[in-house]
Amino acid sequence: GQNIDQPTEMTATEGAIVQINCTYQTSGFNGLFWYQQHAGEAPTFLSYNVLDGLEEKGRFSSFLSRSKGYSYLLLKELQMKDSASYLCAVRGLSASKIIFGSGTRLSIRP
Amino acid sequence: ETGVTQSPTHLIKTRGQQVTLRCSSQSGHNTVSWYQQALGQGPQFIFQYYREEENGRGNFPPRFSGLQFPNYSSELNVNALELDDSALYLCASSVATSGGKRDTQYFGPGTRLTVL
Prior knowledge:
The complex is a heterodimer. Chain A has no helices and eleven strands. Chain A is mainly β. In chain B, 0% of the residues lie in helices and 49% in strands. Chain B has strands at residues 5-7, 10-13, 19-24, 31-37, 44-50, 53-57, 64-68, 74-78, 87-94, 106-107, 111-115. In chain B, the strands form two sheets. In chain B, strands 2, 4, 5, 6, 9, 10 and 11 form a seven-stranded mixed sheet that branches. A four-stranded antiparallel sheet of chain B has the order 1-3-8-7, with no helix packed on it. The A-B interface holds A 4, 30-31, 33, 35, 41-45, 48, 87, 89, 91, 94-103 and B 2, 31, 33, 35, 40-45, 48, 50, 55-56, 58, 90, 96, 100, 102, 104-110.
């Protein structure tokens, strides 16, 4: 079967660092995406990993380990506007089909 | 802003009716994917269209159908609406060459469908 697991909810403090984990089991692997989705809005693209290692983009970094079926999204210097759901998604054998996890709802407190 | 547009923004239908949702892809993108997102869940893949042909389908019944037009815009049609069809419907556009280049999908704002 195909499955993506990520925590349902997380809370962090403004200015701190938070790591959102994602584990996946899919038929084949052709890349992992992270999207941010504010309530009532469309998902917006954050990062894409296809090779093992860390990809850094400003305050956000994403890590991938294909052998472990594991990824994380690291958010630094948290701001109140980072309160949103974070979606982990995997492209499997079929290039057309991307499977999304249920999302992690991140709340930032002052 | 991704340049992907969807219409209408909101829609209310009754059980058994039919609905058509529309999506215009980002300039330069020739592939459109449709997703259904229930409250509190991640998007579920319905299907993808590339060069006016269906290019992959998720676990949705045949009453979910689609079209892609020569300008790469797309429609999602749902027949015989059921209460469980109430959701946010998202389309996402991306670039794909005939060799199946894998590219990032950019989402439109979605259509919120309510079935009563």
